Amino acid sequence: MTALHRIAFIGNSLPRRCGIATFTTDLQQALAASAPDLVTSIVAMNDSDGYDYPSSVGFQIRDDRIEDYARAADFLNEGRFDVVSLQHEFGIFGGEAGAHVAGLLSRLTMPVVTTLHTVLSKPSPAQRGVMERIVDASSRVVVMAEKGRDMLRTIYRLPADKIEVIAHGIPDFAFVEPDEAKARLGFAGRSVILTFGLLSPNKGIEVMIDAMPSILRRRPDAIYVVLGATHPHLVREQGEAYRIGLQKRVHELGIEDHVVFLDQFVDRETLLGFIAMCDVYVTPYLNEAQMTSGTLAYSFGLGKAVVSTPYWHAQELLADGRGVLVPFSDVVATGDEIAGLLTDTIRRQAMRRRAYASSRSMTWEQTAKRYLATFESARRTRLLNVIAGTAQIRPPLQPSAPPELRTDHLHCMCDDTGLFQHAVHSVPDRAHGYCVDDNARALLLSCLLGSAGEQHLSEPLTARFASFVQHAWNPQAQRFRNFMSFDRRWLEEVGSEDSHGRTLWALGECARSDISPTRRRWAAALFAEALPTVDSFRSPRAWGFALLGLDAYCTVVAAPSSTVRLRSLLADRLLALLSTVETPDWVWFEEVLSYDNARLPQALIATGRSMQVPAYVGAGLRSLRWLVEVQSTPAGQFRPVGSESFGDRLSPPKAFDQQPLEATATISACLAAWRADGDTQWRAEAMRAFAWFMGENDLSTPLVDLETGACRDGLHRDRPNENRGGESVVSYLLSLAEIRQLSRMTGDRPKLAPLRVLHA
């Protein structure tokens, strides 16, 4: 395997003012310096401000623009980067709990190594869901403290071999006394206490200010330097009210000559000068859940005596006498410890030497070597998985019961004629009228609910769907019409072959499982009348739909020999197509992928089981296995064949536009495969496809409204389709009914991502 040549970073970048920006830039520069031939590029996250980025930033993402995340994935894939290093912090990415970045990762074709700057011990459901999607998409996860490793293993159940602990990098700075830097910066003759970082209420500056009077009683020459601009987000929300409040506090204590606020965001060289001149560095943070602190790492690496509250990073870094820990918000202890260090030179110098000596493994040069080794390991593992054919195998995520089945939106999409085709958002669109395709699907749903232990659809509603199918039948042409205008005029005398086949499928299921005996007899009779026409069809999907109808019909009707022959003929046609087109890399029935793809292998599997023809089952399983593989992202999420792919000859499917119909077909086919060969991986694939509805998709966006049962019409490249038409709602409800039925059959709770509600 060749050496790493191209590495990309996703995160904030200087000159944006934040710790993540500093870290991303420092890591990028350290890696670029480690190997002259290494090409590095940063994908920079932007908030509402614009930044004058250097040439190291190759692409910018506006954090609230989901289309930018898609374009960033294209930039990285087209740039053929060997590995992507993601710097993750919840606050820098758009979407609920920063979910947009998970959509970006799902599109990448190279391994991802994620550095977690925060690991939450009590995440919200949304935060946990996003975190799990990110770590699942990552080949390796880096944390900067052992506490992070422990939390990932116990809270998030990550395997140990997926986690790396790499300390926060530090500049390789000489161990120097502070006098020269003090003189240069105007603090000669003073005992300097320093805090550096963006000013915000969680930093505990108030505690340090309140401790100053007690420090001054023992060390009258002490001065506390607060270096750093106010956090930009705080400035946008409150202006400089927080800084002014701190200054007022200093004035009230009468210590104006001993506290200096330097409202600056300084470059690294200036920062190192300020750290070099201090005698004690203090981080009085108020929250234990601080996994990393760049300012702590830098001051520790320069050999400073550090006094800190016991947040997680400080507990590890300052253990064994390498620093001093004081309780959170404890003014007395903070003052006592700092004053003690300022008045005890021998103890302070010993602490400095211990800190400096133990930090040599943390220099950016050493940190870069650790990251390079981790990147190499991630790439090697990914390559081995690809060779072994396991690159797409991912464990299902967080266990969760399937949602309740709600039909409110389905009812809204119906009138006394039938199911409307389209909607504008959630409002039925009468302009496009009705079609037999959607009403046949709705009849399938009614039949499934009648046999799945769910609340049945109302008798009038089911009768309406059946009536539409009956009215669509054109006995003169021996074909079903398809499209009807809102004023109940048929727009054609003969519909498509596919719509005819799909209607036969619905009639076959109705003949088998409708709760009404008279409707079962009606369906069987109309099925028998409409079936012979299929013999002349040329559409493989029409054959497949008809076979699915025959699978149901033949379980309840003693089919005549002509029907049995036609059933074998249709299955043989699909088998012949597969044998003609199939290659090692293209295991499919046609040279193109189109819509409702999984129905073809499903039809062969179902027919093969019923007729006891192993060749049919084998061909169905083989083609479905290939389809599942091409419908998976590198991170293992379900990605249906996009409609942009339709007609592309022998080409990998395009990602967009994605439609619910494909997920529904895949779920049904995978469950048919599971019933055929008992391999539980098929159930896992069905769950993965259903999770697409719930938000496990390229945009990390749920398509369904759990309260109404509405379903968006799909995913565009940059946004979800906000319309919620008839095909989409029936597709979702069919899938949900199957998943709920599976849950009852197996007694297992299906493993799905945490559910999030999309409100219509």
Automatic annotation (TrEMBL):
Residues annotated as domain Glycosyl transferase family: 185-356
Residue stretches spanning the membrane: none
Name of one Pfam family that matches: Glycos_transf_1
Gene3D superfamilies: Glycogen Phosphorylase B (3.40.50.2000)
InterPro entries for this protein: 6-hairpin_glycosidase_sf (IPR008928), Glyco_trans_1 (IPR001296), Glyco_trans_4-like_N (IPR028098)
Ranges of residues in domain Glycosyltransferase subfamily 4-like N-terminal: 19-170
PANTHER family the record matches: BLL5144 PROTEIN, GLYCOSYLTRANSFERASE
Protein name as catalogued: Glycosyltransferase family 4 protein
Organism: Bosea rubneri
Lineage: Bacteria, Pseudomonadati, Pseudomonadota, Alphaproteobacteria, Hyphomicrobiales
